[in-house]
Amino acid sequence: MKKGLILGLTGVAMLAAACSADPLSIPNPNSPTVAGASADPGLIQLQATGISRQLRGGLGGYITAVARFGREGYIYTPNEGRNTSHYLVGLLGQNKLDPSGFATGVWGGQYGNRRDIFNFKNVVSGNPTLSVAQKSAATGWAKTIEALEMLYVISTRDSLGAVIDINLNASDLAPFVSRDSVYRWIIGTLDQADAELAAGGAAFPFTLHAGFAGFNTPTTFRQVNRAIRARASVYHATRGGGNTRYAEALTALGTSFISTTATTAAFATGVYHVYSTATGDGTNGVGQNADYYAHPSYATDVAAGDLRASKWVAGPSRNAPQSLGIASSILVNRFTANNTPVPVIRNEELLLLRAEARWFTGDKTNAINDLNLVRSTSGGGAIGASAATAGSTDAQFIDALLYERRFSLFSEGHRWFDHIRLGRLDQLPLDLVDNPAVSGDTYHFRARVMPVPQAECLVRARSGNPALAGPGC
Predict the structure, then answer these.
(1) Which of 7, 233, 400, 439 could form a disulfide with 249 if both were Cys (CB 3.0 to 4.6 A apart)?
(2) d(Cα 223, Cα 355) in Å, to the nearest integer?
(3) Burial class of residue 36 (count of CB atoms within 10 Å of its CB; 0-12, 13-18, 19+)
(4) What pTM value is reported for the model?
(5) Strand 73-75 and strand 292-294: pairing?
(6) At 42, is the pLDDT very low, low, confident or very high (cuts 50, 70, 90)?
(7) What CATH code is carried by the domain that includes residue 184?
């Protein structure tokens, strides 16, 4: 974890140095102390802004990576075939992804942000100007973001597990733990954060950006915490946690921002990453991307009259170099500009999470009601009711659920893991099929996990401690 976790406070340390009372005593900017950092009254805001920015930093890469794995869309760069082959072919003839290749994201950025959050929590704890309530609010917010980062990690590494501990010394490697342990840590952290937000008073000791509008106080942000808890619980229910987690998801949704108001605006309510084209800011990486094509099956599989088909538009036919993909002529139009906000979590997803949790806890009639609410509001009345009913089998319900999640949450980073966790990975199209009679034949396979990056594996191998070896390394 050296590479991913050696991130500290060097940027803000310079501020602490500037405030030194003794001009001859210059702190080492590469070795900031918690006490020194805590003395800077503006540091909490700088760190909170940095954590929010880091959270969004790799989102465009995450969305397009899992889109390729989930056959939502491809990045058809005309001169770089690896933007296709590294996700769908991997190491030629080996049926696995390249751990040193392009498809190893959702790791360094997430653990880097966890290191920043680790430092943030220490600075908050040692800050003499913050009240007990302010410290509680700040810590509850940070832990919620930390749990969300780990949810991205475990949903992409799944059976490999992940690292949950962040040590004071970033050079001290922490071991991998099982998938189940990671989910338990995420859920426990979210519950701790919820309790801290409840004791957090009326306001955070920092200002959150516009993407948190409506959820920018400890009280209102608790609704976001509970929404993320619902997502984590539903995920864990399908990855070994059982129906108890579905019941917990329903409880969490009851105190989230879920709403049955049948309007596009109500469905869009949530927390968003925000972007701009201003100097020093960033763009979303998925809007106005002329190389980001939807998988052609979206045009053929969508029901006639489904309004969600507006999330892609006609474009010139494209393929990857050497025909490594499958030709598509529909461009992704989910985010219409490079400064369009991208959701962290929103109400439409919550309704679909509730439908799933209700079904598997026995409330099948209301589960179908939730599916149909989403279908009629987002899809439009022309497509009719869901094919599933309260009398359907579990398999039939999952078919209907996956349809609504596929088109409602298109290009938001869900489809690949939905097919993994619901046992439908084999339903994703292969496009190119291996011909074992032809040596070196190009083929696609369905990835089950993203590999642990090779750099992480090498650092762990050099430690000489077999207990620290990463799975799959």
Answers:
(1) 233
(2) 19
(3) buried
(4) 0.91
(5) antiparallel
(6) confident
(7) 1.25.40.390
Distance between CA atoms of 372 and 384, rounded to whole angstroms? 9
> What does the alpha-carbon distance between residue 6 and residue 56 come to, in Å, rounded to a whole number?
19
453 in Cβ contact with 156 (< 8 Å): no
Across the range 247-266, mean pLDDT stands at 98
Q: What is the C-alpha separation between 108 and 111, in angstroms, rounded?
A: 5
**Contact, 127 vs 33, CB < 8 A?**
no
Closest CA to 270 of 412, 67, 120, 62: 412
Is 355 within a domain? yes
Does residue 297 belong to any structural domain of this protein? yes
Closest of 54, 65, 350 to residue 226, by C-alpha: 350
Nearest to 353 by CA among 365, 371, 334, 376: 371
DSSP 285: S
Residue 197's identity, in one-letter code, is L
Map tokens 């049948």 to a residue: 262
Q: Is 473 part of any domain?
A: no
* pLDDT, average across residues 67-75: 96
pLDDT band at 183 (very low <50, low <70, confident <90, very high): very high
Q: Tell me phi and psi for residue 92, to 5 degrees.
A: -55, 125
CA dist., res. 470 & res. 454, Å (int): 10
Query: What's the rounded Cα separation, in Å, for the pair 193 and 137?
Result: 9
Q: Which domain holds residue 300?
A: 2-436+444-468
The enclosing H or E element of 125 equals helix 108-126
Side chain identity at 351, as an amino acid letter?
A: L
Q: Could you give the number of structural domains in the chain?
A: 1
| CA–CA gap between residue 38 and residue 350 (Å, rounded) | 38
